Amino acid sequence: MKNYLLNFDDKLLRTVREVGRQAAKKKYAAYIVGGIVRDIILKRKNYDLDIVVEGDAIRLARDLAKKWGVKVTVYKKFGTASLETSKGLRVDLATARRESYAHPGALPVVRPGSLKEDLLRRDLTVNAMAIAIGPEGFGRLTDEYGGLADLSKKAVRVLHKNSFIDDPTRILRAVRFEQRFSFKMERQTLLLMKAALRKGAPSNVKPPRYFTEFKKILCEEDPLNCLKRLHQLDGLCFLDPKLEVRIGDVCLLHKRIQKARKKSLYAQKDWWPVYFMGLLAKADDRVVKRVLERFPLTKNERRGIEQSRQSIDMVRSLSARSLRASQVFRILRPLTAEAVLYLRVVTSKVMVSQRIDRFLDRDIEVKLRINGDDLKAVGVASDRRMGRVLENILHLKIDKKVGTKQEELKAVLLSLKEF
Ligand code: ATP
Q: Atom 24 in ligand 1: which residue has the minimum CA distance?
């Protein structure tokens, strides 16, 4: 028997052994499942410990939490529990279950089941494997549906012909894994996917669920190929039936994002909203309004998307020949962080890019040494006037007209004459 955990990460190994031992004490069989198994075989890093037990996962999680002295979060309805080890490792435990769908796209009805049934409810063969972690058979692979063969053939395949109808979010998942690993959609799977899209299957899924999966695409290291693939399959229409995406524009945006990401200033930024802004860039206002209403975006994300629609005007303002740093600051500060990133990558003007870089790198961090108390001491009441005076001094500081606290105070006295 091959031990698939032979070269497993040390920290993870210790944890799964402990979970396996504790499960065995209760006479439960325990396995790691899903993406982490796929990634072990592909020799890719993955720290998402998804564990399935043939037994009561919640009881097991409670035992482990007690033993490790950590908190456990229980989802009784789903028979699942999560805990975090003292080393910050998240462990998700679930009772093996089988699923049935009341109607296409609905959330499945789940009942306890065997490992085999649990694997059968999964999206793709390559995500439907398990590795035993109990003392008996530690490291043994369970591959009921040909996942290993598909991994070596680089094939993306669903487990049964109703898969995309039961759960159309799998369309997005299949595309995501196909592109992430440079795999190829197996012929029958592709036909099933196209048929599901033709039938409009995605409209059976509640928008928040579909969006959660779509967002994962935008968060991929390289979302462009997924977007191109979805576009080619007419699979972007779920965002809105009237949305026409200009994929050429998205390609250009992606190229610029990749370039910006090479700079340390932009390497750690969250770029998914910027891709989303790019997809909506040429849509008319009614379409954007519908999209913003349907999908679970935060207030800030919505605001950013609305701001991104003014990008042409803002780039024009930022292109003015002589513009003080404080004027750039005044244009950019009301924007969300993501709307600023969007501006940074839609513009081809070097001067505008440099101005945005300086704003993010320096000006946004500029702080005054004086505060409200200093203003009160020179007789400014704490009202709107105080805010305006402080704002004025901040602009002077950004333009390097003042530096020390003394200079700031002197500037306060001068601006009091103005306001
Ligand atoms: P990633 O590497 O992006 O984290 P993952 O495969 O770990 O990918 P998750 O979204 O964390 O993806 O899902 C964990 C596992 O749950 C998957 O590997 C798959 O077995 C199963 N799964 C997730 N979503 C679905 C779905 N819609 N239908 C069936 N099975 C699913």
A: 123
- Of ligand 1's listed atoms, the one at least distance from the Cα of 169 is 27
Which of 40, 45, 127 has most ligand 1 atoms within 8 Å of CB, for mutation? 127
Tokens 């009921």 belong to residue: 144
pLDDT at res. 419: 60
Pocket test for ligand 1, best of 91, 107, 122 (most atoms within 8 A of CB): 122
User: Which residue lies with its CA nearest to atom 30 of ligand 1?
Assistant: 122
Q: Do 380 and 338 share a structural domain? A: no
Residue 166 beta carbon below 6 angstroms from any ligand 1 atom: no
Q: 130 has which bridge partners? A: 33, 142
Q: What is the 3-state composition of the chain as percent helix, strand, coil, each rounded to the nearest 5? A: 55, 10, 35
pLDDT digits (tens, 9 = 90+) for 93-136: 999 999 877 787 777 787 889 999 999 999 999 999 999 999 99
Contacts of 118 (CB under 8 A, 6+ apart): 33, 52, 94, 96, 97, 98, 130
Residue nearest to atom 17 of ligand 1 (CA): 34
The verdict on residue 162 lying in a domain is no
Domain extent, residue 386, equals: 372-416
Residues 123 and 31 in one domain: yes
User: What integer pLDDT is reported at residue 99 of this predicted model?
Assistant: 82
